[in-house]
Amino acid sequence: MSEPIILKGKPVADAILDQVARDVNYLKEERGITPGLSVVLVGDDPASATYVGSKERKSRELGLNSVTYRMPENTSEEELLDLVERLNNDPTVHGILVQSPLPSHIDYNKITLAINPVKDVDGFHPVNVGKLVIGLPGPLPCTPAGVVEMLKYYKVATSGKRAVVVGRSNIVGKPLANLLAQKRDGGNAIVTIAHSAADDLGAITREADILLVAIGRPNFIGSDMVKEGAVVIDVGINRVDDPDAKRGYRVVGDVDYNQVAPKCSAITPVPGGVGLMTIAMLMQNTIASARGDFNQS
Hints:
Layout (H helix, E strand, L loop, with lengths): L4 E2 L3 H22 L4 E7 L3 H17 L2 E7 L5 H12 L6 E4 L9 H7 L11 H9 L7 H12 L8 E5 L6 H9 L8 E5 L6 H5 L4 E4 L17 E4 L3 E4 L7 E4 L4 H4 L5 E2 L9 H15 L6
Parallel strand pairs: 1-11, 2-3, 2-4, 5-6, 5-7, 7-8, 8-11
Antiparallel strand pairs: 9-10
């Protein structure tokens, strides 16, 4: 078959961020509102620190009031809850994001529950999860929402198509399956959630017109698990050792790209695919919160 279409994240993210920049200017000039995003990082996890730095730079580039709280590893749960409460009560803060993973002595669920759902720009509070499931407006989890925006941007037909989501996390797999199943643009698909407990996972993934993989295992999906002509969306970001690489590692997805790409009609690269969408959707959620989109829903 012909070469697959490479579904790059950059043009999609750029289009969203261009609109975010216009929205920021409007809110400042017409309503006197500077959208505010507060990010909390506890500990010194290198991947988290890199990601938080990217969020910080993009926020400031777009003109948001961006504040990052870097707290030591030994921060107590009570101290973190106190900070969240202060941010909840601060009218200049429209978005709160507590970066995971948290140190083991802090209950992640307790922190998530403490965030005002209107300011929960990660979309992980149970109130917002419930809104997602029944189709009410609210902040959507950034990576799943970014995947749907990519499908729409590249005009990948989803209505009536068989979509298989490999992975069942609360961050990606479950919300992505919900979004794809909803009767909306970029949805209306026939959705299956699959995972490693399947006796024959390949028998399920080979049925997919659209295969979306978020299982957290490098190069897990090979060509024998993909139907000819499928669209493959790889959400995975994994570091694998590579002594020949400058940093001693390289980044790969959950899909063995070199094996799978020749069978696909379209596929996302890693890096350069879905990963670029997460920050763009975070910015979009923050602007929507500042605009008041989530207040009455």
